[in-house]
Design brief:
alpha+beta, Transcriptional Co-activator pc4, Chain A, four-stranded antiparallel sheet
Length: 144
C-alpha cells in the first residue's frame, strides 16, 4: 500500500492505511480508514494512530483547492476531522504566503499534543489536494 505523503514547510505527514471498514448501505459514516501516521518537523518525530473517513480527506482536498483557486484573496480554513488526531489550518498571509498550523495527537481524548506552524507558497495547496485525491482514488482501485 502506498502512503499519503503531505509536506508543508518542515512538516511531513506520511499516512499509511492499515485497514478499511466499510458498510456501503449505512452511508459515509461507515467508511473508515484505520491509519498509522508518521510525522516529522524540524527536530520532532512522532507516530500515532488515526481513524479518518475518505470523505473527510476529499473535503480537505476540496478546501485546499478552494483556497488555491481564490488566491490572492486572503481566505483560510481548518481541517478538523471527526477524530481530530490531525488538525491543520491554512490561511493566506498578508504577503501572499500560505501560513499554517498543525496539531498532532495519538489519542484525541488526552491533552498531549504536538503543535507547530509552517509557511509555504500557494502552489503547495494544489499539490496537496492532488496527492489527497490520488490517495483516496487509489483506495477505490485497491492500490493504496
Amino acid at each position: 500500500m502506498h502512503p499519503l505523503i503531505l509536506k508543508y514547510g518542515e512538516l511531513t505527514l506520511s499516512v499509511f492505511v492499515k485497514t478499511r471498514t466499510q458498510d456501503g448501505s449505512a452511508g459515509p459514516y461507515f467508511d473508515w480508514l484505520k491509519c498509522h501516521v508518521k510525522a516529522s518537523a524540524k527536530t520532532m518525530s512522532t507516530d500515532f494512530h488515526w481513524n479518518v473517513m475518505p470523505q473527510e480527506l476529499l473535503r480537505f482536498a476540496d478546501d485546499l483547492s478552494g483556497l488555491f483557486n481564490e488566491y490572492p484573496k486572503r481566505g483560510s480554513f481548518e481541517f478538523r476531522p471527526s477524530e481530530p488526531n490531525v488538525v491543520l489550518t491554512f490561511a493566506i498571509g498578508s504577503k501572499g504566503q500560505v501560513e499554517g498550523t498543525y496539531e498532532l495527537r495519538d489519542d484525541f481524548l488526552t491533552p498531549i499534543v504536538v503543535k507547530g506552524s509552517f509557511e509555504v507558497d500557494q502552489n503547495s495547496l494544489e499539490r496537496g489536494a492532488s496527492s489527497v485525491r490520488g490517495f483516496v482514488n487509489s483506495l477505490k482501485s485497491g492500490a493504496a
